[in-house]
Amino acid sequence: MIYKYILTIVPVALSVIVHAIVISILLRRLVRYKEDEVFRIWPPVRDLTWLTVWLIMAHIVEIGIWAAYYLFGHAMPDVQSAIYFSSVTYTTVGYGDLVLPEGWRLIGGIEALTGILMCGLSTGFFFAIVNRMYQIRHSAFDDDRTIRRKNREK
Predict the structure, then answer these.
(1) 24, 96, 104, 121: least CB-packed within 10 angstroms?
(2) CA distances (Å), 19 to each of 8, 24, 54, in order?
């Protein structure tokens, strides 16, 4: 019985690794504007859309990792049930229509805790990106105002 709890480190670690990889990739790709893009509306819309899609994809992969863990441990009868249970547990919706066998129930709580942490990490990252977009635009507007003021003073 204890081996199940020790092995739970694997899906927890894999969830964190998947999330870290996706966030690292997004950090390198997002919020890089050319001068003419700073004042346009579509570059930030594009970036926020891609950010949302990639973060959701990361969560889906992590749900799949947990579903595989339940399947290989024979805690769920089939793939559909494992994915459904994992998605409900990971997102902490917890309908209760499917439950883990008695020896696995604490592991469901660990998945829920992992899901909360990964969703929190996504939320914090999303906020940081939006904040960075605001700083870039605000700085560009300030620079633009400064240039206009200097031109008027001449």
Answers:
(1) 96
(2) 17, 8, 10
Q: Could you tell me which residues come within 8 angstroms of residue 125 by beta carbon, excluding any fewer than 6 positions away?
A: 23, 26, 55
CB neighbours (10 Å) of residue 11? 22
Of 23, 109, 12, 17, residue with least CA distance to 66: 12
- The tens digit of pLDDT for each residue in 53-73 reads 999 999 999 999 999 999 999
Whole-model pTM: value is 0.85
pLDDT digit string (tens) for 72-128?
Answer: 999 999 999 999 999 999 999 989 899 999 989 999 999 999 999 999 999 999 999
Per CATH, the number for 2-153 is 1.10.287
Kindly report the backbone phi and psi dihedral angles of residue 86, in degrees, each rounded to the nearest multiple of 5, phi listed first.
-65, -40
Q: What b/e sequence results for 67-105 when a residue is b if at least 16 CB atoms lie within 10 Å of its CB, and e otherwise?
A: bbbbbebebbeeeeebbbbbbbbbeeeeeeeeebeeebe
Residue 96 per-residue DSSP state: -
Neighbours of 149 (CB within 10 A): 9
- pLDDT at residue 34 above 80? no
